[in-house]
Amino acid sequence: xxxxxxxxxxxxxxxxxxxxxxxxxxxxxxxxxxxxxxxxxxxxxxxxxxxxxxxxxxxxxxxxxxxxxxxxxxxxxxxxxxxxxxxxxxxxxxxxxxxxxxxxxxxxxxxxxxxxxxxxxxxxxxxxxxxxxxxxxxxxxxxxxxxxxxxxxxxxxxxxxxxxxxxxxxxxxxxxxxxxxxxxxxxxxxxxxxxxxxxxxxxxxxxxxxxxxxxxxxxxxxxxxxxxxxxxxxxxxxxxxxxxxxxxxxxxxxxxxxxxxxxxxxxxxxxxxxxxxxxxxxxxxxxxxxxxxxxxxxxxxxxxxxxxxxxxxxxxxxxxxxxxxxxxxxxxxxxxxxxxxxxxxxxxxxxxxxxxxxxxxxxxxxxxxxxxxxxxxxxxxxxxxxxxxxxxxxxxxxxxxxxxxxxxxxxxxxxxxxxxxxxxxxxxxxxxxxxxxxxxxxxxxxxxxxxxxxxxxxxxxxxxxxxxxxxxxxxxxxxxxxxxxxxxxxxxxxxxxxxxxxxxxxxxxxxxxxxxxxxxxxxxxxxxxxxxxxxxxxxxxxxxxxxxxxxxxxxxxxxxxxxxxxxxxxxxxxxxxxxxxxxxxxxxxxxxxxxxxxxxxxxxxxxxxxxx
Length: 612
Known about the structure:
The protein is α+β, with helices and mostly antiparallel strands. The protein contains 13 helices and 26 strands. The strands form six sheets. Strands 17-22-23-24-25-21-20 form a seven-stranded antiparallel sheet. A six-stranded mixed sheet has the order 15-14-9-11-10-16, covered by helices on one side. A five-stranded mixed beta barrel has the order 1-2-3-6-5. Strand 14 (360-363), helix 9 (368-379) and strand 15 (390-393) form a beta-alpha-beta unit. It has helices spanning 21-32, 77-84, 154-167, 199-205, 221-234, 274-282, 305-309, 330-340, 368-379, 407-410, 449-452, 469-475, 478-486; strands spanning 109-118, 121-126, 129-135, 138-139, 171-175, 187-194, 197-198, 210-211, 265-270, 288-296, 316-323, 348-349, 352-353, 360-363, 390-393, 397-399, 442-446, 504-508, 514-517, 521-522, 530-531, 540-545, 552-557, 563-568, 579-582, 587-591.
């Protein structure tokens, strides 16, 4: 679920941290002579730069000695902070080497870097929401944050600390490539700090990561390959021993008997007042090892109950569950969770109202994310209204005050919005459905006037000379082909456009025919892009779909006959009451600034705000 796409969360933007760069640089100069004696990292060699080539840094850079990252132990936080200060020294000459040169920041999306997960993954604040972001074109050694202990490396932890010291709290600008998100709903971007400093480039150039191609996002990979060769030659970063450096787990970090047979896992559940949620899980017959009431995914540190109740911290009352996956599965935990919440109400549960009572599932293991998405997708058909449970990686969690812990255990007659007697009841088969795509059985065509009677203005010509099936398989990704040609359904929340709201036009990924305008897009909380109307008459074809226990209306593109999704009658009444629930894989988004150059200039008026 949109991880990174917290569709209900109202997180406030953190104040930007003002890094004391002058002091850090001064300390760096003092430390330069002493660094060789440090056990954690050292600088070696000194050469005279000779111009804008890949073998030497820019002449204006005073630090011309490569930082090395040891394999036997991580950098301390202090060492990482001192070393990271050098990353901001001017290197404008790389604009002459980098494809495209300097970047125009006015064309990029501005965000704040909220937190660094590791050397290749960030959490950024996007529209006041924390979103997971993967840096394009590179991989970093695994840090101590990796859930599998065998994969953790000291080098990865050093890189994570360096990147965190360099980036956390700073303003950044996102440049996207062909695909703006991956299957785990992480943003995919090149991150810029200014017109000359690309984070992805610096990390490869300094030898903190290794370049890796992830088609189709390969705009800078040839350039990154050259930077990596130079980093290896100069022994920078993790290449301190040349190309002998290995990327795997540290032998010294293995534990006897470690593996995938984890005895404990943790999940965080927000389901209204944490008293009742905590007590319910304590009453389950098996599997729950530990519970703790607290506050999750807000801004600020260690909030009090009173501060959270004021509703301006963004924290949700949350219960931390530690469980034995051999005794109770995550799916079973989620099934019990759905027993005690209303997953269709945003800001209240039971008699409690406010943002702090929103329903949410917060995970720390990335492997839990698809399990959660599949479960919510499978339960969606059980509710007449859209599900609004937010699913996010855990950003932060602070234990609540002592008097909140085990509250109903100590006060059995205290307030509880949960029916605790249900904890003794075994789960029913319908509570443990199998996730996966819902089938589509196209039926009779329906009169478009039933859905588009309120539309006026432009029409879309429904004529398209389609490519052959073989050509489509070459042109489309597997998911795009399955959705548009085989009536498949992508996962909710883990898709490209669910949380994209910038101005532009959405067209058929097969034919390019206009389908929807960003002007009519809204956040329905369903996990897929939602629109209140098509961009014009003739854009869509409507068909009966009787594949599930309830009757649905399928929508297809008028020209290419691509399966797009469904239309429901639970949309905003002010916009006609319809919700077009569309697969991102069936769409291609054209940003407003690019519409003219891509041949969609006639549709700009359908994207612009008519009142502006």
